């Protein structure tokens, strides 16, 4: 057994994963100011333009189909979950591809006592941190707009983080397998992320969709995050429903985690 393997065996997966996380954290020191600015600006612009601007037109025609909520109150928690998806996608695909293809920092890390699983978990830890930061900021912006109607919405932060991880874990696993180019990422954005953003209940109730397509919307992880965040926002979470949403999101994140360990091991063990 090599000295590197001895270090990894003695310290265990937790400390070794934290070492990988620290690399991402050090790297983030160069870009955190710009990311914080966008993390604040995005919810302000979305809630201002869509919630207040478009919402003023929607509210004139009644709010019965929105459960009696104003459009701003309906939209805000859904956008919080959708923002988690966007953050997860942004932290998962190109950063992983860059680390394994362009900058080859993953290969450099694999030459140290870090194992592929440690590298993968370290990146997920960083993604989790970014999700947590962005969701806390989004909740603060929601409070500034006056649409936090229940203290239950505090639980919306970990729910949104879990929603993001349901995307980040499998996308990390996919991105690390790309060897030649990043063209497949375009398909994920065009045929995955954008349709989910538009048709998973963020901007209007899924019940407004044609009946034949609703089961597809209900099967998407974003719908589960949107539905649970919205229930928490208005203070009407149902225990059985909440457990169902959390179980679905947790299962996707867990399957992605398993796939990631396999994919990272195959790519980085040479």
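-> sequence recovered:
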């Amino acid at each position: 057994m090599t000295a590197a393997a001895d270090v990894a065996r003695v310290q265990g997966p937790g400390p070794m994963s934290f070492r990988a996380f620290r690399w991402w954290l050090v790297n983030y020191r160069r870009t955190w100011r710009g990311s914080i600015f966008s993390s604040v600006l995005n919810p302000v612009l979305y809630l201002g333009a869509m919630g207040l601007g478009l919402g003023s037109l929607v509210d004139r025609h009644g709010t019965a189909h929105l459960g009696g909520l104003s459009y701003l109150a309906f939209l805000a928690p859904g956008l919080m979950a959708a923002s988690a998806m966007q953050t997860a996608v942004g932290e998962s695909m190109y950063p992983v591809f860059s680390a394994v293809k362009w900058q080859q920092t993953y290969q450099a890390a694999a030459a140290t006592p870090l194992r592929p699983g440690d590298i993968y978990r370290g990146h997920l830890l960083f993604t989790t941190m970014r999700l947590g930061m962005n969701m806390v900021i989004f909740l603060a912006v929601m409070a500034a707009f006056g649409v936090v109607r229940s203290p239950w919405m505090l639980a919306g932060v970990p729910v949104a983080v879990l929603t993001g991880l349901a995307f980040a874990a499998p996308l990390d696993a996919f991105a690390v397998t790309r060897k030649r180019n990043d063209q497949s990422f375009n398909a994920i954005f065009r045929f995955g992320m954008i349709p989910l953003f538009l048709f998973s209940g963020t901007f209007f109730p899924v019940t407004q969709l044609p009946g034949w397509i609703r089961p597809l919307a209900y099967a998407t992880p974003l719908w589960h995050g949107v539905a649970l965040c919205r229930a928490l926002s208005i203070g009407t979470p149902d225990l059985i429903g909440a457990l169902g949403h959390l179980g679905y999101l947790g299962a996707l994140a867990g399957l992605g985690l398993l796939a990631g360990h396999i994919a990272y091991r195959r790519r980085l063990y040479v």
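DSSP finds eleven helices and no strands in the chain.
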